Amino acid sequence: DAKTTQPPSMDCAEGRAANLPCNHSTISGNEYVYWYRQIHSQGPQYIIHGLKNNETNEMASLIITEDRKSSTLILPHATLRDTAVYYCIVRGHYKLSFGAGTTVTVRA
Amino acid sequence: ETGVTQTPRHLVMGMTNKKSLKCEQHLGHNAMYWYKQSAKKPLELMFVYNFKEQTENNSVPSRFSPECPNSSHLFLHLHTLQPEDSALYLCASSREIRPASGTYNEQFFGPGTRLTVL
Q1: Pairwise CB contact (< 8 Å): B45 & A95
Q2: How many other C-beta atoms can be found within 10 angstroms of the C-beta atom of residue A84?
């Protein structure tokens, strides 16, 4: 699987949009971009995934650049309950390879 | 609630004990996974089962022994563990693994069992 690079941490104000970047410059054509998050002391939770096109669901939006070398996860209105570690994963098969992720702290 | 339950949530055991972790999924899935999450380290895949057959053993020591009696249940039997085995053990499930299809199903995780080996 392609390696991903995420900032180790970021803060966000409650009610504002949180934009989480991920670089995956070695991604290949059949690899998907997945996002999971892990709230403290819980199991990881699936958020969203995409291949080429931008995707949106009830939790978040995923913006993938045209060259697919980077992506951004957008939480449109961050709440305190969105405080978690967010993992960007490039996936070419059934396995999920988790890195260190980005620790996102939403502040009131 | 993700539809994946794990028991116990917390377990403290001595190095000579034998214990088992249990995972149950209520999602109708056919693939189940064990992961280990040690402090300050990323999640590590340990075992994968697809339709009750083990398809992956990620070089896990033999003191960890998985069992998958049916597609809804997964166990991890523990014996003669070491203190460095203390970690959060996470179970996950997904729809069946079909590598040839080129599609990869989302994994749904349980809350984990926090294991402490004394």
Answers
A1: yes
A2: 21
